[in-house]
Amino acid sequence: MQYEGPIYRPPSEADSLLIQATVGCPHNRCTFCMVYKNGPPFKIRPVADIIADLNQASESCSPLVTTLFFPAGNTIAMKTEQLSMICRHAHSVFPHLQRITVYGSSQYIHQKGEQELRELAQAGLSRIHVGLESGDDVILQRVCKGTTRQQQIEAGRYVMEAGIELSMYVLLGIGGVERSFEHAQATAFALNAINPTYIRLRTFLPKIHTPMLEDVEAGVFQMLGPHGVLRETREFLTSLDVTSQLTSDHYTNYVNIFGQLPHDTPRMLKELDLALQRAEGSFRPVYIGTQ
Ligand code: SF4
């Protein structure tokens, strides 16, 4: 099997077969993201090569494969016909396959529209991970996300309407001290309009080779400390009106909270309040540009 460039996958895909359908990210401009800043440039692998990889994997582990993830920044940007073809082929060679997942940014999902997403659902694509990051248009523009809150809402609704599971990532702290409140409020507003299957929390860390690290080092961007992030999380959580599963399964978070919304909201708020009683020095260190 062929792999090129950094291979990233969400923690929930730890047990999945990873087959590369695309390389890099067609956007590659988010100022907080270091993944493909040093290349390789975006490309879509030939369908014949992807099918050859699926066939090779099926020869050695076909009965064991229940979940499949196509890694790289925006595999949803593949032509719908091609992505459908490889999803169908995967289901034909892995008889126990229960889930096929890709990463996709809202602008590429939006370009597809609801009808093409329905075609992908019929072909067996079952989950899309989307970096919402924020619902605040000022922040989205500052971090060069290449989309707007309205477009993210529409794209998210297309996915849900098509019957594909939607996992949306929120980047805590991405508004810094200046826009923490707006970030919490606007992000909850966007998610309330979408009601995705999953909401996943990550916390902003300035990574090497990123414009945001330069802003942090220059003092242009003032990062939230642990208590600031926890207060932002609290504000966000109390503003949510969804039935999503909330997960924060990541090393970047100061505390990880999990629960079914809205049922588990009071418990999660208590956990945040308990964490807020801890001294800031007791949390993970605030890494700045060391990785
Ligand atoms: S769309 Fe995703 S992979 Fe591409 S630059 Fe932005 S965060 Fe990174």
String of helices and strands: EEEHEHEHEHHEHEHHEEH
- SS strand fraction: 5-15%
Unreliable runs: none
Measured distance between first and last alpha carbons: 28 Å
Bound molecules: iron/sulfur cluster
Morphology call: globular
The H-level CATH homologous superfamily, spelled out, is Aldolase class I
Explain this structure:
- With 291 residues, this protein is α/β, with parallel strands linked by helices.
- It has a single domain (11-281), classed as Aldolase class I (TIM Barrel, Alpha-Beta Barrel).
- 39% of the residues lie in helices and 14% in strands.
- The protein has nine helices and ten strands.
- Helix 6 (180-194) packs parallel to helix 8 (226-239).
- The two termini are 28 Å apart.
- The model has no long low-confidence stretch (mean pLDDT 95).
- The structure holds iron/sulfur cluster.
- Residues 25, 27-30, 33, 35, 73-74, 105, 131 line the site of iron/sulfur cluster.
